[in-house]
Amino acid sequence: MRLAITRPDDFHLHLRDGDMLAAVVGHSARRFARAIIMPNLRPAVTTLAQAEAYRQRILSGLPPETDFQPLMTLYLTGNTSAQEIARTAQSQVVCAVKYYPAGATTNSDAGVRDLSQVYPVIEVMEKYDLPLLMHGEVNDPQVDIFDREAVFIERHLLPLLARFPRLRVVLEHITTLDAVDFVRGAPARVAATITAHHLLLNRNALFQGGIRPHRFCAPILKRENHRRALLAAATSGDPHFFLGTDSAPHRRADKESDCGCAGIYTAHAAIELYAEAFEQVGRLDQLEAFASFHGAHFYRLPRNTGRIVLERKPWTVPESYLLADNSRCKPLRSGEVVRWSLEDD
Ligand code: DOR
Ligand code: ZN
User: Fold this and answer.
1) Which residues pair with 338 in a beta bridge?
2) Pair type for strands 328-329 and 321-322
3) How far apart are the C-alpha atoms of 124 and 128, rounded to whole Å?
């Protein structure tokens, strides 16, 4: 069986920098026309000039004859100035601003400690219609790790949306029934990305036969009823929901460690994994809208004109991918089968 769809976009992607960027960017460029690039480098991408320079490094790292377009973001900190946001809003390079609660995930120590402190900057974003992309979890040790998304919605997202009635917000990588229900009922200025791994795995996968560090991500995998709610949302045709892989490569040693990093690498098989998930519920007919139309509409981008062809032909994922510095990154399904393949262009 073959499935041809408009070339998709990845609305949430970690490409990293340097050696790692060089090793991973080809995977995304082969599948996607554009991607929203996360700014959680060290140091974080906090200014327009840094975003422009990072974009150039990505473009120079691309394999020849690809026309992949990186859509850049700025990292919101307690020190982000209203002037920088105003400048950024007028640039063609930066499409959005990313909010990380300080300490919630990889390279988030520069994140925001108190959301209300950055309200003056958010006001400028609302004025210039620059979307705010939110890592929607509280980082409160009193709150159970499985409840942090639901508590974020109540404690921070609801007041934010009430305070800024025209601000456009993407709740990134949603993982719960609570987030699905909230976003489904929200106005069109609120949207959500959904990863392939949250569509395919529930929290049992973290402990299948032992502890599985390569399945650890933030927000953490949830119960099966939440996975089912995400799958129903992604395949429903509702334009609030669109594709964002959150593909997050790490060196193997940094994940298989006493304090392993959060992040799952999926760029090597991203659209193929989404096809598997959609096939599970008999909704392959909805893959194109979710992967290629809804996100472009939200970001006010033209739809891509090219196409990709998926084929229902199983292939075995390599055990690991070599990073240029001789370390390795272990991808999702390492050494195992993915049911769908991408036909060559
Ligand atoms: O699992 C994750 N990894 N979640 C994030 O929010 C960040 C990402 C990373 O940068 O590794
Ligand atoms: Zn991410």
Assistant:
1) 315
2) antiparallel
3) 6
Query: Quick one: how far is CA 71 from the chain centroid?
Result: 13
Q: Whose C-alpha lies nearest to ligand 1, atom 10?
A: 106
pTM of the model: 0.98
Structure tokens at 20: 């790692």
Q: Are 206 and 264 in contact (CB under 8 A)?
A: no
Ligand nearest to the CA of 255: 1
Catalytic residue among 246, 258, 325, 344: 246
Which residues are paired to 190 by β-bridges? Answer: 169
Q: Does the annotation mark 114 as catalytic?
A: no
Q: Which of 10, 13, 14 has most ligand 1 atoms within 8 Å of CB, for mutation?
A: 14
Q: Is the CB of 248 under 6 A from ligand 1?
A: yes
* Mutate-to-test residue for ligand 1 from 217, 252, 255, 259, highest number of ligand atoms within 8 A of CB: 217
pLDDT tens string, the chain, 345 residues long: the values are 999 999 999 999 999 999 999 999 999 999 999 999 999 999 999 999 999 999 999 999 999 989 999 999 999 999 999 999 999 999 999 999 999 998 777 777 778 888 999 999 999 999 999 999 999 999 999 999 999 999 999 999 999 999 999 999 999 999 999 999 999 999 999 999 999 999 999 999 999 999 999 999 999 999 999 999 999 999 999 999 999 999 999 999 999 999 999 999 999 999 999 999 999 999 999 999 999 999 999 999 999 999 999 999 999 999 999 987 789 999 999 999 999 999 986
- Taking the centre of ligand 1 as the mean of its atom positions, its distance from the CA of residue 309, in whole angstroms, is 29
* 14 touches ligand 1 (CB under 6 Å): yes
Type of residue at 71: L
